[in-house]
C-alpha cells in the first residue's frame, strides 16, 4: 500500500520530470518500475505509443473495468518556484496528469493486495491526451483488442469547482472539437501590377466571416446541439510591400456538443471554403488537427459514479451542460459501451488548467482513489 506521503512524493516527482505528448518514454518507465511491485497478472507496454496497461484478474468470470490516467504534459513554461517545479524548460504538467497518475498508481497498490473477485481490472496510462491522438492510437493498436473493456472510467481534476466535489452528467460530458486548417492558393505578383496575380485576400475575409457564422447556420438546419467556432489564426501573403499575396491560411477551432453537430459544422465549413475559393478562382486545401470525438457518458456509467459518490460521502452535482473542453477519453467509452468521465473539483481558487501557475492539489489523491475503488467494488468486487 502506498501512503499519502509516498503518493504525494510520486506525484511531485512526476511533476518535476514532464514529457510532451508522444514523448512520454521516461514517464511510462517510471510507472512501469513502480508497478513491478504490484504483481499485476499482465503488463502491456508501448500501446499506441508509450501507453501502458496493467491487468489484475479475478478468479471468477465477469466484466472488464478499465480506469484511465494520462501520461503527457504540456508545452508551457512553469512559473512556480516550489521545489518540485519542472526541470524541463518550456514543458510542465499543467493539466494535472501527474496527479491522475498518482491516483491510478494508488489503485495499483491496493489491487496488489486485494484482487478483483470477478472479471478483471485494467489500470491504463494513455499517451498523448493533449493532442487528441493518444486514446485513438491506443484503442486502435491491435494489441489492445484483447483488453477492450466493458466499463471505462476516468476523472479530471477541475479548478473552479469546490475542492473534492464531483461534477458528472449522463450523455455528453466533453464536447467534440477539432482544428480546421484552410489553405488558399492563388498567385503572387508585383504589388504595382496586382492584376497579373491572383490574391486570396477577399476570399480569406469571406472564409473568416462564414466560419464565424457557422453556429447560426447549424441552428438553421434544425440541429439543437450547441456549437462554437473560434477563428484562431489567419495569415495572408508575406510582409513585403512590393508583393501582392498569392497564399493565405485560416485556422479555426470547431466545437460541438455532439459528434452529429460536429459533422454538420465540418460539412458547412468545407462547403463555404470551397464556394468562396472557387468563386475567386483559387485552389483550396483543407485538413484537420487535434480531432476529439465527444466524450459521452452512458446512463449506467453515470449512475455508478453517483453511487460511488454516495458510498464514499463525496459531494456531487449533476451538471446541466457538458464541459466545452475536449477529452479523448470518449474513445474508451465508445468501445466499452458503458462508463463515464467525471470532474473532481480542485477548488475555486486553484489556477485554471493549462495556466503557467497551475499545480495539482495532492489532497485530491485519496478522494479520486476512493471513488475509483468504489466503482471497482461495484462491478468486480474485491477480495
Ligand atoms: Zn489538458
Ligand atoms: Zn487533462
TrEMBL record:
List of residues binding Mn(2+): 95, 97, 130, 156, 354
Family annotation (Pfam families): M20_dimer (PF07687), Peptidase_M20 (PF01546)
SUPFAM superfamilies named in the record: Bacterial exopeptidase dimerisation domain, Zn-dependent exopeptidases
Which InterPro entries would you find in this protein's record?
Answer: Amidohydrolase (IPR017439), Bact_exopeptidase_dim_dom (IPR036264), Peptidase_M20 (IPR002933), Peptidase_M20_dimer (IPR011650)
Cofactor(s) listed? Mn(2+)
GO MF annotation list: hydrolase activity; metal ion binding
Q: How is the cofactor bound?
A: The Mn(2+) ion enhances activity.
- The segment(s) forming the Peptidase M20 dimerisation domain are 179-277
Q: Which UniProt keywords apply?
A: Hydrolase, Manganese, Metal-binding
Q: Which NCBIfam families match?
A: amidohydrolases (TIGR01891)
| Full protein name | Peptidase M20D, amidohydrolase
* Species annotation: Vibrio sinaloensis DSM 21326
Amino acid at each position: 500500500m502506498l501512503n499519502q506521503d509516498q503518493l504525494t512524493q510520486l506525484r511531485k516527482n512526476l511533476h518535476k520530470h514532464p514529457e510532451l505528448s508522444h514523448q512520454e518514454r521516461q514517464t511510462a518507465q517510471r510507472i512501469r518500475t513502480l508497478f513491478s511491485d504490484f504483481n499485476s497478472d499482465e503488463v502491456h507496454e508501448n500501446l499506441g505509443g508509450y501507453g501502458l496497461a496493467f491487468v489484475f484478474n479475478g478468479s471468477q468470470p465477469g466484466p472488464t473495468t478499465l480506469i484511465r490516467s494520462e501520461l503527457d504534459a504540456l508545452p508551457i513554461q512553469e512559473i512556480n518556484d516550489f521545489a518540485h517545479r519542472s526541470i524541463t524548460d518550456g514543458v510542465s504538467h499543467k493539466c494535472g496528469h501527474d496527479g491522475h497518475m498518482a491516483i491510478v498508481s494508488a489503485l495499483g497498490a491496493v489491487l496488489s493486495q486485494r484482487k478483483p473477485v470477478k472479471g478483471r481490472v485494467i489500470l491504463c496510462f494513455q499517451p498523448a491526451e493533449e493532442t487528441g491522438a493518444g486514446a485513438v492510437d491506443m484503442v486502435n493498436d491491435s494489441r489492445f483488442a484483447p483488453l477492450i473493456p466493458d466499463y471505462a472510467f476516468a476523472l479530471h481534476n477541475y479548478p473552479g469547482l469546490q475542492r473534492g466535489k464531483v461534477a458528472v452528467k449522463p450523455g455528453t460530458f466533453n464536447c467534440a472539437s477539432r482544428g480546421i486548417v484552410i489553405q488558399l492558393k492563388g498567385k503572387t505578383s508585383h504589388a504595382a501590377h496586382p492584376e497579373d496575380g491572383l490574391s486570396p485576400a477577399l476570399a480569406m475575409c469571406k472564409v473568416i466571416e462564414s466560419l464565424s457564422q457557422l453556429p447560426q447556420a447549424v441552428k438553421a438546419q434544425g440541429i439543437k446541439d450547441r456549437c462554437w467556432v473560434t477563428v484562431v489564426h489567419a495569415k495572408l501573403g508575406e510582409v513585403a510591400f512590393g508583393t501582392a499575396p498569392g497564399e493565405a491560411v485560416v485556422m479555426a477551432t470547431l466545437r460541438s456538443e455532439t459528434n452529429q453537430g460536429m459533422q454538420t459544422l465540418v460539412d458547412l465549413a468545407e462547403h463555404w471554403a470551397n464556394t468562396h475559393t472557387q468563386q475567386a478562382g483559387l485552389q483550396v486545401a483543407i485538413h484537420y488537427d487535434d480531432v476529439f470525438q465527444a466524450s459521452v457518458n452512458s446512463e449506467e456509467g453515470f449512475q455508478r459514479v453517483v453511487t460511488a459518490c454516495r458510498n464514499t460521502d463525496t459531494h456531487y452535482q449533476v451538471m446541466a451542460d457538458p464541459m466545452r473542453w475536449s477529452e479523448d477519453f470518449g474513445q474508451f467509452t465508445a468501445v466499452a459501451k458503458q462508463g463515464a468521465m467525471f470532474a473532481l473539483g480542485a477548488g475555486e481558487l486553484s489556477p485554471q488548467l493549462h495556466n503557467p501557475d497551475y499545480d495539482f492539489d495532492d489532497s485530491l489523491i485519496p478522494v479520486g482513489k476512493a471513488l475509483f475503488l468504489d466503482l471497482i467494488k461495484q462491478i468486480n468486487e474485491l477480495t
